[in-house]
Prior knowledge:
The protein is of the alpha+beta class. The protein has 8 helices and 9 strands. It starts with 9 loop residues before the first helix and ends with a strand. The structure holds 2-(butylsulfanyl)adenosine.
Amino acid sequence: MLSLANAFSPEEVVEFIARVRRFLGLEPEQPLEVTAEPKIDGLSIALRYESGRLVEAATRGDGFEGENVTANVRTIRSIPHALEAKVAPEVFEVRGEIYFGRADFAKLNVEQRAAGGKVFANPRNAAAGSLRQIDPTITATRPLRFFAYAWGEAPELPADTQHGVIDAFARWRLPVNPLMRTCASAADLIAYHRGIEAQRPSLDYDIDGVVYKVNSLDWQERLGFVSRAPRWAI
Ligand code: IVH
């Protein structure tokens, strides 16, 4: 996975779309939908729900083995302990980002300084420090927030598109980013990136780019991965 944080030029977005179209063998008139969303600068987390109940939360760690942070994650108010679904999936691993709002971060540092405690360098470190507390009652005092944007183990999916699954997350009462859009062309994606760049200073959280994902899950599967990076996203 690569992000579009100044590192990618508009030409590279055009090339990404062209590469995906070529790989899938799409005719020029065949539409290709791609979702666009901010890349949150926080901590990657996996939440395991069994029969709709939160049973485990782990940081991503090295990608294979994470740290178990279940007790601390249970103190985050916006993360549901039970999914709001009539028929909850037997197993569903939700992936997303835990982050600290900018205003909350500034306030935390004022309090920490006053109390002679640890002052954090940035919101990401504040999120990491707050999540890794040994005592969950301390984590509970920190206003950590969460956006769900992906999934891991999920034997059955609630939709056949990226955006459809995220809409299901919202119905399950998981917090999702309201700035996510579905785009129909490279030009739309580039315009989206410009719009987010313009909004960036007024967002209440840090982002480090924009993530684009092929909307069709069948096509994501066909595109697959190249050395752990999905061919269906940048
Ligand atoms: S998609 C299965 N979407 O970026 C995970 N990643 O992915 C698929 N990140 O450390 C990742 N915001 O924690 C995705 N909206 C977003 C994201 C996002 C932040 C992070 C993620 C990971 C890195 C690369």
